Automatic annotation (TrEMBL):
Organism lineage string: Bacteria, Candidatus Giovannoniibacteriota
Annotated protein name in UniProt: Plasmid stabilization protein
Record keywords: Toxin-antitoxin system
Pfam families: YafQ_toxin
Organism of this sequence: Candidatus Giovannonibacteria bacterium RIFCSPLOWO2_01_FULL_44_16
InterPro entries: RelE/ParE_toxin (IPR007712), RelE/ParE_toxin_dom_sf (IPR035093), Toxin_YafQ-like (IPR004386)
């Protein structure tokens, strides 16, 4: 599987603490092996993110992505649950 990062995702990633970046990198490795590994809690989203999916990064941190094609995951955002899902 190929992973593509939106510019917004890259900006948010750079703002994370180093340990949060490392946790995402670890979760991404799991995601690449098996996107539906139970450790990721991969689930579809509703509302403004309908059509996208979310994986748990650790603690309250979430990463949002969509499957652009069968084997291309397009990550668009990474932040805390409350910041991502507030209106």
């Amino acid at each position: 599987m190929k992973v593509v990062f939106h510019q917004n995702f890259k900006k948010q990633y750079r703002k994370l603490r180093k340990n949060q970046q490392q946790k995402f990198d670890d979760q991404l490795s799991i995601f690449l092996e098996n996107p539906f590994d139970p450790l990721l809690n991969n689930h579809p989203l509703q509302g403004k993110y309908e059509g996208f999916r979310s994986i748990n990064v650790g603690g309250d941190l979430r990463a949002i992505y969509e499957m652009a094609e069968k084997d291309i995951a397009y990550f668009i955002a990474i932040d805390t649950h409350s910041k991502l899902y507030s209106t």
